[in-house]
Amino acid sequence: MGRKVLEQYRSSDGGFYQVPWKTNPILIGYNKKLFEEAGIERPPRTYSEFLKAGEKVTK
Length: 59
Description:
About 40% of the residues lie in helices and about 0% in strands. It is mainly alpha-helical. The chain has a domain at about 20-59. About 0% of the residues are buried.
């Protein structure tokens, strides 16, 4: 767990008394070959870019 993520769970007295076992990270996978065939040169960096790329792939 990264320090920045961990710091959000520090208590007001500066200690850590519990840390959640997951923080619901979001991971999106894609098919490199399909993206290349659709003319998409680099992976999307935002969710809105990902949605636009998905539209290109499905047309």
